[in-house]
Amino acid sequence: MSALIRQTRYLLAPLAIVAVVASMVAMRPLPSTLERVQTRGELVVATRVSPTTWYQDQHGDTGLDYELARGFAEQLGVELKLVRADSIEDIYQLVDSGEADMAAAGLAITALRSDDFRFSAPYQQVNDVLVLRQGEKAPASLHDLAERRIAVLAGSGQEQHLRQLRANRFPVDYESIDGSNAERLLTLVDEGYFDLALVDSNSWAVNRSLFPELRRGLDLGEQQIGWAFSDDDTSLVLAADRFLTRKKADGTLAKLESRFFGHINQFNLYAARSFLRHLDSRLPQYSDAFRQAAEEYGFDWRLLAAMGYQESLWNPQAVSPTGVRGLMMLTSRTAKEMGVADRTDPLESIRAGAAYLRKLYDRIPARIPEPDRTWMAVAAYNVGMGHLEDARILTQQQGANPDSWQDVKTRLPLLRHATYYRSTRHGYARGGMQSVIYVRHIRRYYDLLVWANQSERHGQLVALAN
């Protein structure tokens, strides 16, 4: 009998060990979302294509949310992987299902969404604005919305705003439109299908030049913008909060806002109408030449086209009072340097303009990051490399960053004043402020050309771009 007991004991001992180990494993906490991201070496971010969030320009992926997400991934020591969603609802679904670790897509922090998701600390504040056609009476209050049909983006904070107004018995008649950005809504209003569109103020600012027949009306209130995370875990959102707080404190966020939105309000109704008219009537004649020159000299053709528009409105016969001439408005000296026989020949002018821009670009230190290096080259095209270098030196002397266009552009206008230009190598720069405005306008035209590639309103340009 004792032998049987001993045998049974030997058989049960391994099972007991297995049970103890299993219980220890079960008690071990599962890795947090942050730990999984770092172990995987990849941060998966759901986003949407929009001029306010993520798009592609001459340097590749860009946009406010993209740049912030890229910086967050770098801080975590992992690669960034973007997952494109075609609607706001799809963005939340990607996070909810675990296919994305987070969403960075200009999302409003609302009470309804906060029931199901965690949000980071807000990094932007926008207004919900009503947009209507020029010449129509704007609603002065919420009560004036009766019998006005409103288009709103499905899943957006603006949709939830209207839903709340309806719950509070305000007379709002709205339809939720599927999509990832506000342009579709503005098109529907522009073409008369709706009386109003409710969009965030950033979306209106970046799109308004494409819609010169629309105007901003009543503001319905403010919304905070943040990143969205699964409600299951706080580790990643806490890391994001620390990151965003630091980027606010060190000025990075302000610089990004200036980079993406700082130049967009300097555009009047006449300029917008003129640009859209010439976009269809003049650009198609020269798009191949811009493409060829861009390929030869390593630029985005839309950047060269934007410069050509700023210089001459794409007019090869343009002449200025100072004697510059042609589509890219070359001086006789620059034309000779670039081997141009006829400045009014658009092909010669475009190729020479691209070659000259490349020459300037190559003289700017390669350590300067994009897009700052490009905008400095564009400024030098207008004001001259010598004055640009004087402004960079002055920037450094004043304790700012000579490799930042944001800092340099505030010093260029100072070169008109003897207090500053007297100690510079190249002296007085009459066009310092002019060059700042020059770059600002080119950035705006360039943005419009980039965004028009995805625009339903300009199918002709889409065909040219593809």
Short descriptors:
466 residues; alpha/beta; Lysozyme; 21 helices; 11 strands; globular; disordered C terminus
Brief rundown of the structure:
The chain is α/β, with parallel strands linked by helices and 466 residues long.
Could you characterize the architecture of this molecule?
This protein has 466 residues and is α/β, with parallel strands linked by helices. It is built from 21 helices and eleven strands. It has a domain at 272-465: Orthogonal Bundle (Lysozyme). The strands form two sheets. Strands 1, 4, 5, 6, 7, 8, 9, 10 and 11 form a nine-stranded mixed beta sheet that branches. Strand 2 (55-57) and strand 3 (60-62) form a beta hairpin. It is globular and about 70 Å long. The model is unreliable at 458-466 (pLDDT under 50).
Q: Quick one: CATH class of the domain at 272-465? A: Mainly Alpha
CATH topology of the domain at 272-465: Lysozyme
How widely separated are the two ends?
Answer: 88 Å
Tell me which CATH architecture of the domain at 272-465 applies here. Answer: Orthogonal Bundle
Count all strands and give the number. 11
Task: Kindly report the average pLDDT value.
Answer: 86
Main pleated-sheet profile? 9 strands, mixed
Strand percent estimate: 15-25%
